[in-house]
Amino acid sequence: MARQNVPVRYMTVGDSMTIGAAGDYTWRYRLWQHLSGLGPVEFTGPHSALHEGSPAYGDPAFPAAARRHLAGWGEGWLHHAPRIGDAVARYAPDVLLISLGLIDLGFYTCPEQTLANAHRFLAAARAARPSVRAVLLPVIPNVRAATDAPFAAQVSHFNALLAGAVAELTTPASPLVLAVPPTDWDLTRDTYDGTHPSAPGEHRLAAAFADALHTAWSLGAPYPAPLAAQV
Known about the structure:
By secondary structure, this protein is an alpha/beta fold. Helices cover 43% and strands 11% of the residues. The protein has helices spanning 16-19, 27-36, 77-80, 84-91, 102-108, 111-128, 143-147, 149-169, 187-190, 199-217; strands at 8-14, 41-43, 70-71, 95-99, 133-137, 176-178. Strands 1, 2, 3, 4, 5 and 6 form a six-stranded parallel β-sheet that branches. Helix 2 crosses helix 10 (199-217), helix 4 (84-91) runs parallel beside helix 6 (111-128) and helix 6 (111-128) runs parallel beside helix 8 (149-169). It is globular, with a radius of gyration of 16 Å.
């Protein structure tokens, strides 16, 4: 794979699975580590800390500039839609890497309302930067979905709506891509509490985004395999 010569600016947007807590490496770190080995990249956004402002990443050598993101504990499409326009205008990302929806469905909005907020989010991002691209990760069912059939159905329904929206809203100027969620996601192995990613889960989430970027736009390279060997 040829190295890239022009830095690509990424902004990760998400909830607690993206921001991480004290001691986590985060999937953001795993993805940065992968992409930065292939060419110049920048991670941008208004925040750099973990949950509750902690600076204690699993790797203290994670560069401060690469820690930048737009994620928050307990935040969903509902919360990010009003702020994404300003963030995109200020930090000028080329690509948004979005993992949202679990919080919305779990606490705030039904699938249709959640989709409406996703539409608002994308419209605001494009108004601020008409050429912005985005990779959207479907909601990964958590432990609640494993025991609450109606909630699991809501997750499945929203994911179907999101796939339809990505196909409908993508344009040549501002393409959208639906990432393929990890097909072998295991709550015991890939999370530490039924929701938040453990180290294997971080690698699987990073791989979902890395593979989407490479498949859609030849950015970076496929994530190293086998994932079981990643620590």
